[in-house]
Amino acid sequence: MELPTAPAGKGCVPWQGLLLAVLLSTFWNPPTTAQLTIESMPTNVAEGKDVIFLVRNLPGNLAAYGWYKGDKVDHHQQIASYKIGPVEITPGPVYSGRETIYSNGSLLFRNVTQEDTGYYTLQVINTSYQGEVGTGQLRVYQPVAQPSIQASNTTVTEHQDPVVLTCLTNDTGISIQWFFNNQSLQLTERMKLSQDNSTLTIDPIRREDAGDYQCEVSNLVSASKSDLLRLDVKYDPTLGSSGLSAGAIGGIVIGVLAGVALIAALVYFLYIRKTGGYDGLSSCSAFSKANRHAWEREGDFNTVSGPASVPPPS
């Protein structure tokens, strides 16, 4: 039921005066049953939405109850009082016109603002004028605005240009998440996030990093994604998949081949030393030694039987 506006200039009937006195009193007896509790639904609410305080373990034999802003019973902060049988609802000093009080003690807030954040107290009075108090908390958050992405460059060359993406937002108390091609971004060893996740760095960039990027900001009550940002990655044909130039790759290949040839020669040399050489080399050595001996003998023969020693013909 909506709270009516109290008629001006009219006093309270004797029962109302007694009820008001009880509501203003801070006296209450400890409950003998389950504790009276207040639950906000939802627990966290976005600014401009509605929220209701639900009452749990409401005692029986109720005569009246009253709602107060704050964590205690204070008649200066009373929202409204509710009398049972016959029903009579009386607005309090802080009633704003957005509150609705129900017969089960629940309190509905419409179009809440961040100024409504805080504690709220319910006092219930039974027919013996004994009171019980419960307190609940309302948390109101401002919905986040749509973020945007700023890129160091949107067209880059593979293996040459790093990319820095920044999620821009003015909201505070938020979480930031990144998306790639409409899927949650899976970080690789080339990707790095800042401490608050607002900056994504990719270095070095590769062709598989090309695509659509988004960032999402969220708080306890809302979430919003940025527009898509397209990242184009060009391929430089003078660079290999490793990012080296063709000349550098050629030099590496030549160096590898030279190293292989050197190792092969060393292995062959060690094999020759271990086996004592091959048959062709041994034969060549033996032939050379025989020739040397033959030349020595021939030289001796020429010395003894040279032309001067040959007798003249008869």
TrEMBL record:
Residues 147-232 form the Ig-like domain. The chain crosses the membrane at residues 248-271. Residues 1-34 form the signal peptide. InterPro entries: CEA_cell_adhesion (IPR050831), Ig-like_dom (IPR007110), Ig-like_dom_sf (IPR036179), Ig-like_fold (IPR013783), Ig_sub (IPR003599), Ig_sub2 (IPR003598), Ig_V-set (IPR013106). Keywords: Glycoprotein, Immunoglobulin domain, Membrane, Signal, Transmembrane, Transmembrane helix. PROSITE patterns: IG_LIKE (PS50835). It comes from the Eukaryota. Belongs to the immunoglobulin superfamily. CEA family. This is Ig-like domain-containing protein.
